[in-house]
Amino acid sequence: MYNEGARAFLEVRSIAPSNGKGTAAVFDDITAKRFWSKVDRKGDDDCWEWTASGNSAGYGQFWLDKLVVAHRVSYEICVGPIGEGLVIDHLCRNRACVNPNHLQAVTQKENIVRGVARQNRRIKLDALTHCPKGHEYNAENTYIHPRTGWKNCRVCKNVATRISKEKKLGRAKSPRPYSDGRTIKCRQ
To answer: How far, in Å, CA of 111 to CA of 108, rounded?
Structure first.
């Protein structure tokens, strides 16, 4: 995936930042050696951990006239310029990894779709076994929204719908049942 010139650190290349901000960086053999000295390089299939400073989000930082994220520098040294409107996605999901085989230029939208936040939300949603009122999520009692994946308790939804209709009709407020038989009055 990366060229031999980058592997040997002999190629001198001017890289303009893809976001159009800042100045172009020159990757000469000294800069490349300084960069790679901060990397724990293992096999081509393993993560290459950034060993120098990192930001609060876990991405490595490297100084090139200003602080830049290390995985972008790795990609630009080994693969080439990052296209306009593209960001670098970690295929390995390890933010400290700078292995160019684990990096791919994608749109921000694609990066979000692939992202950890979405995976973590899915894991959390799958781990839920009961609604906040204590009703069990099962095939008969659970509605899963097709777009968001959120789980909704049908018992709670039916009670909320009934209360809403009674409010519109001016009737007395109904208690909301918990799964263990307790009830509470609705807040006004």
So the answer is: 5
